Each structure stands twice: as structure tokens, then as C-alpha cells.
Amino acid sequence: MIGAPEPYRSTPIFDETTLPAGLRREHRTKVGVWGVIRVLEGRLRYRVLDPASETILDADHPGIVIPDQPHLVEPIGSVRLRVDFYDQEPHSENTRGCAVHPGSDNE
């Protein structure tokens, strides 16, 4: 059996004050790059812009970032999070409960 994909890179842990401005405004991953937004504490609003959707993420509900899909995040009070990046869709026990948005192959 082949193991679950491992991230090739992870961001530092951010909080509501250190979360970069670039993540708070529209941005996207490169073609072929998936992300998993992992909230460690608190809550985070995850907004996908095309097609439009909004999800509240927390420690039990990470968010999947689809390659090249415009999105942004907004802290809801105190929050700690990181983003893990993958070169393939991150199917595993670690993504159970993830918010997946329209336009993904998981619909």
C-alpha cells in the first residue's frame, strides 16, 4: 500500500497578527500545487472566490486549497495556523473533515 502524500513545504505557524497580508487578499497556488490550511487554535474564514464559497475552519476542519483557485483567509479573533503544500491531492486520514470547495474533483 502506498502511504499518504507528504507535504513538500509548510509555512511557519501564523497567528492573527503575523498572518501575511498576501494571504488576507486574493491569491492562488500555482498550477499543480494543493494546500491544506491547518488551524491549530481558534477559527479562520476561508473564502474561495471562483466559484464563490465561504467556510469557517477550525482544528477539526482544515481547508483544502485547490490548485490555481483564487481564495483568501480572514482570522476570526485569535487564531494559530499553518499551510502545508503538496504536489498531488492530499488524500489521507489527516485531511478527513476538510472543507472542499466546488470546482474540485471531490464534489
From TrEMBL:
Domain TehB/YeaR-like: 9-83
Coiled coil (residue ranges): none
InterPro entries with a match to the protein in the record: RmlC-like_jellyroll, TehB/YeaR-like_dom
Pfam families from the UniProt entry: TehB-like (PF09313)
Record-given protein name: TehB/YeaR-like domain-containing protein
Record organism: Sphingopyxis witflariensis
